[in-house]
Amino acid sequence: MRRLPLPALPLAAALVAAQGAHAARPMITDDARIVDPQACQLETWGKRGFQDGIREFWALPACNPMGNLEITVGGNRSDYEQEEVVRSLVVQGKTLFRRLEGDDWAVGLVAGGVKSSPSSRGGPSLLYAYVPLTVARFDNRLILHFNLGANHNYESGQSAVNWGAGAEIAVWGERAYFIGEVYDDTRRRTEYQVGLRVWLVPNRVQIDTTYGGQFGVANSGHFFTVGLRLLSPPFLPKW
User: Which helix (H) or strand (E) holds 11?
Assistant: First the structure.
């Protein structure tokens, strides 16, 4: 049985939500926002590949106990049809140097690690860090996100630069958003993803669905995702 790769983990493991009603799962490109101080969130989603048969399920809880440090500890399960199952633990921290206020820009720093099983290593399978930049225009009806970072995969012994660029466009007030992005980590072909995000309960319950694939590869790498995001009001004690 062949080992499963760690597809897009430098960014995919970092799918954490933003403060307010904008960038979040299912975008691979992260945003320069964090969950509200003393609040938490849970993002869960499933992914299904059309050609390779890959199935993924993710659960990423995150909290912001100190006001400017969002901590994510979660994981996923990935498998191909009739192939070996891989489970991954994700630990990540995210902070902001400049917050987004109205039609402006924000920037932060994200760093984390991934431990996959089965693995021949005792330490992390992958370490990554990147800078998220977010720009808002037209009364926050257009939100642009840019990522640039690097990762080291201890399983393969390789390092790579990773990048992403995404956009969110309001299509129904503050309830529904069209989302689209392109992303790469230099060892894989550039991938894309487009979809729709809808708030069932504003700033509390959100659902989404996307379709994606690889550029330049006909009928290869296409996938479909469905996700659910839950956000809490502030309830943690202040540090």
Answer: helix 9-12
pLDDT tens, 164-223? 999 999 999 889 999 999 998 666 679 999 999 999 999 999 999 999 998 877 666 789
Over residues 93-145, the pLDDT tens digits come to 999 999 999 999 999 999 999 999 887 678 899 999 999 999 999 999 999 99
State how far the Cα of 238 lies from the Cα of 25, in Å rounded to an integer: 27
CATH number of the domain residue 66 falls in: 2.40.160.40
* Contact in structure between 205 and 188 (CB atoms under 8 Å): no
* In contact, 129 and 147? CB cutoff 8 Å: no
CA distances to 7, 19, 20, 138, 169 from 100, in Å: 30, 10, 10, 14, 17
Asked whether residue 238 is assigned to any structural domain, the reply reads: no
Domain extent at residue 155: 9-113+125-231
CA 52 from centroid of its chain's CA atoms:
21
Strand residues in the chain grouped as ranges (E): 40-49, 55-63, 70-79, 86-98, 105-117, 126-137, 142-153, 158-172, 176-184, 191-201, 205-214, 223-231
Give the span between the Cα atoms of 235 and 23, in whole angstroms.
22
